[in-house]
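Form 12-C: Joint structure prediction
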Amino acid sequence: MRLDDALKIGTIICDGAMGTELQRRGLGKGVTPDSWNIINPEQVKDVHRAYIQAGAMAILTNTFGANAMRSARDSEYTVSQLNLAGAKLARECAGDDVLVFGDMGPTGWEDQLPPYGNQSEQVFYDTFKEQAIALTEGGVDAIIIETMSSLAEAVIAVRAVKENSSLPIISSMTFARPPSSRPDDIRTSWGDSVSDIIKALTEEGTDIVGANCGDLIEEMVILAKMMRDLTELPLIFEVNAGRPKIDDDYRTIYSLEPEPFADIVANIVSAGANIVGGCCGTTPDHISAIKKRLIK
Amino acid sequence: MTDLKLSLVNSMLSRAKAMTQTEEIVKDALSNNVPAIEILNNGLVSAMSIIGDKFSEGEVYIPDVLIAARAMQMGMDMLKPYLTSEKPTFKGTVVIGTVKGDLHDIGKNLVKYMLQGGGFNVIDLGNDVSPEKFAEAVRTHKPGIVAMSALLTTTMTSMRDIVDGLVEAGLREEVKVMIGGAPVTQDFADKIKADGYAKDAGSAIHKAGELLGL
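Section 2 - Result
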């Protein structure tokens, strides 16, 4: 199955949160999720399979922070090792029918980009390039650049992927709650507007654009409408399961149950989204709720 | 004095012109014999607090805060030679760090700038800070507050270990623990027995002052 074929068929449901699912399977605090691609691959595959069973038609590799400026920095494994392993595990579970998106998250050092910091753009570019090459080699169907708060950083990431891989590129930004004085002025925490984002990332070569994570939950529907009005590119939205709470066993549980979560996601699809899934706090139950809801 | 505070808010938020405009205002105030301590507390510090509130409300964004913090620092440096005779005491000392394995430095950095702008002495332990390192910093610096930041749901639970680490080291009673970050909530703060929770960098100054009884 190729991504562009899948998009022609209908709405693509992707997966939900990985880190918290690994924690449920024993990932210790202070241990990075991506390290399990090498030291405990069976559990990573278990999560992938659970999401596929729940209805995910696309799964994201367990490589969100596995770049040279983040978790791979202190890891005993190289960026290449972590991303190759992550891609291969996902591919094994996905087979030919399920799509694999190579997941790339932010560096965490956006405030070091010029003009605010002293880091060169080249360092960021090389970081994203290294990860993109490894994921491509590992056999993913597309690269997803997600949870970006800084358009400046996202632009460098898209460019790095475009120039070093021939795979389709998905770019997903994280938005903040707008001020009460300007409720329609939805921007990232860096102040990037929806129209600036779509213009810049389209110019850079993204094939798909959208949003994930952040403060917006029901407001993602408004965001979907805004984006649909501005572009004909396929749109992606991965929504958080509400806000986190801690139960008496100190486990993080999210406030939005699968059914109301799926209702919001269904509205996002009506607003024009092509790919939908879950972000923080979501579980396979949230994904199967989306599947049930979209069939109705 | 309100004029000074408001004109500094404007200058600090004027992006490309923030540095030159803020420098002018501070120079002007000094040549008009406004006491340096007033320019600092009622001018720069108050302006930073207003900017923090605007950031909390989503009115201004991270680049605005980064630039304002830089202008603030420049203003404070200009005042230093005039302040030696009247030693400004810090409102308190805060040890701050991002928990092990987390995503952003930026949340912690924004809080640091806010707290420094608010007159606190901030010891920045950086990121990937273990419970042991937090405890050691408390022993060394004897802060009033330990502040922790986390952006990921998978790392916020480490905050509990840090609180427990302080209890084990017999240091818990000596500090107030303040936490923050996107997934963090008051409910979580209560569960891990933190003393306070700040929703974002803008609210952090207010919470820190509250915790120290200022």
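Section 3 - Comments
Residues 69 and 107 of chain A are 6 Å apart (CA to CA). DSSP finds eleven helices and ten strands in chain A.
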